[in-house]
Amino acid sequence: MLTVEKIYEASAMLKGEVRRTDMLLSSNLAKECELYLKAENLQITGSFKVRGACFKISQMTAEEKARGVVACSAGNHAQGVAMAAKKNNIKSTIFLPSTAPISKIEATRRFGAEIELVEGVYDDAYQAALKYQKETKAVFIHPFDDEQIIAGQGTIGLEILEQLPKVDAIIVPIGGGGLISGISYIVKNLKPDCKVYGVQASGAASMLKSIEYKKRNALESISTFADGIAVKYPGKLTYELCSKYVDDIASVSDDEIARTILTLMEKQKLVAEGAGAVSVAAALFDKFPLKGKKVCALISGGNIDVNILSRVINRGLVASGRLTNLTIELLDRPGQLKDVSAIISDTGANVIKVSHNHGGENTDIIGCYLKISMETRDYLHLKEIRKTLARKGFKVLSTR
After folding, report:
1. Closest Cα partner for 323 from 262, 374, 370, 384?
2. 108 and 155 inside one domain
3. E strand or H helix at 199, and its extent?
4. 174-228 per-position pLDDT tens digit
5. What CATH number is attached to the domain comprising 44?
6. Rounded to whole angstroms, how far apart are CA atoms 20 and 166?
7. Eight-state DSSP code of residue 378
């Protein structure tokens, strides 16, 4: 049984094993609330997952440890299990979806785990891991639907209440639900008036749908770059705990997540992975009633592949109106490019790329298209540029 005492036991066991991560007051992120960030992205292995894995393995018998452990993960649980297993001299075999970021795969391998890549998403890796467990009798360490794992993750809730005693609301990412189950259980038992909100990526909102339908619901497909919370089917235990202790669940789009990752880097100097940023995205894009409240958003992880990060930054710039492509139709005559560039420069934007193409069969014979990539402040700035171009007689065909 999950109990308050069990979470306190996990907290005592984890002292010296994991970091007590910082609680950071954000700088001008949210206008309506006083927003604090619980920085689990700065945890050992770069994710909260190491808490549950370490506590689970600490509870195993000598006979169980001799059989080794097996786990499945999108990457963060894998690193937690591999690290905890290495500390205890236990053989670990980790099944990961082939879509997992290379950085997470290699980090897991460095902890000495045997890696098995499975085509598909987390749920496909889960089935492969279960098959392996039956064949080898290794101890299966579930990433979320396990009371000891949940107790380990619940230690974050204890830390939040100690670091921010007057907290009014806590926002937590949800994949399979282990993290929010542990946090909501301990918070509601110790401070029942504190709201606990969950957030999922809109392309992987399995827990949200399950709560809406009042029964566990499996998604047919998943579409999000937030791989750490890309789970088709929530856990049985976590669904029950979320139904009882979580006040509300919302979803955020990939564009909102990308913008939030960019904002955290620029304003807080923090790197968050997609799954880790959803909680902050919910605060920034008004998914919950937070006005005037003291709010803690949990950044659950920072293990984002650098190749993905570059795309996310670009996506965030586009989504926030700060990186824009304009297509302008004009007559092909001297001075046109100079005039357009002057307008853009005078409004304070920065041109980074220009493409000049002759018109097609449906345009004027001396017509052409001017495609301009530029850096702008935001959508209002872009609107100002478009209005100025139109006032000067230039025809803007598209903005992207």
Report:
1. 374
2. no
3. strand 195-201
4. 999 999 999 999 999 999 999 999 999 999 999 999 999 999 999 999 999 998 9
5. 3.40.50.1100
6. 19
7. S
